[in-house]
Amino acid sequence: xxxxxxxxxxxxxxxxxxxxxxxxxxxxxxxxxxxxxxxxxxxxxxxxxxxxxxxxxxxxxxxxxxxxxxxxxxxxxxxxxxxxxxxxxxxxxxxxxxxxxxxxxxxxxxxxxxxxxxxxxxxxxxxxxxxxxxxxxxxxxxxxxxxxxxxxxxxxxxxxxxxxxxxxxxxxxxxxxxxxxxxxxxxxxxxxxxxxxxxxxxxxxxxxxxxxxxxxxxxxxxxxxxxxxxxxxxxxxxxxxxxxxxxxxxxxxxxxxxxxxxxxxxxxxxxxxxxxxxxxxxxxxxxxxxxxxxxxxxxxxxxxxxxxxxxxxxxxxxxxxxx
Length: 323
Ligand code: ACO
Fold this sequence. Notes:
By secondary structure, the chain is an alpha/beta fold.
């Protein structure tokens, strides 16, 4: 028998305000056509002025708890993947814990930018496999609109706000790749590339800062590293590309998504794509895509799902799980 961390509930939340590409044409030297053709993005959601990352996270968490038929106190731990927490501290996760009225367990944030949700899934999986927790609420939530330089057309048109959440629960499996739950994880980072994508502010510099990105350089690394991490995680699970039902990639750019699928030898009809509607929501993009993919009827129980992401650090990784 092998303990597995199985997804038993999922949900998401997107802020009300939808911003189409055309809205940027009034203030920037850009066009809907450029944004669509270079990134695949058509629209994104932006949080309201008084709406914070933990607000979005709490709404996604409530949807996931409802889907699992659970109350907040049925959960042992909350892990929030975010780079845009409400305050420097405490963690967004403890804010979600308070908003949910959860009176037990423990909560903390994980920060690996766009790879954050993959890192958070890996952390929650380790908590469950080690016996430290039986049920973990894993959330990806971001308000990247708060760290955009609205005069920089090469970044501000690409990002959006949102949150996705899922419940991971320890269950007994047979120790085979047919088990439900997380089957393998692969995590990587290489700090030599820290200057390709960063925020030029923070606590030590007493500023909030803005996102800065050498987009074409990040692009260069993305396809190769994403295909490689997905292949590594699949091999670790004792599986092959031909076993995959769904790739649920980080949603940064449709050209990266297509390039990675091609490099892996997978057709696009096996890829869940939401980038056109959400933009790049960093750590929220994978749980959002999982939740939307399930509600579209794409991801079904028993399906083999591979999630993969890359972001600032550079940090990248993949998780193979059976739904
Ligand atoms: N509208 C019009 N023109 C633009 C815009 C815009 N919004 N933005 C940039 N351009 C121009 C540039 O100035 C440049 O002009 P020049 O040739 O006169 O200098 C030209 O378009 C081409 O720019 P590139 O950056 O080479 O364009 P590219 O095809 O690489 O597309 C993009 C840019 C969309 C950013 C792409 O490189 C990309 O998606 N990169 C990866 C982003 C990513 O995956 N990030 C990782 C995760 S994010 C995270 O971790 C937080």
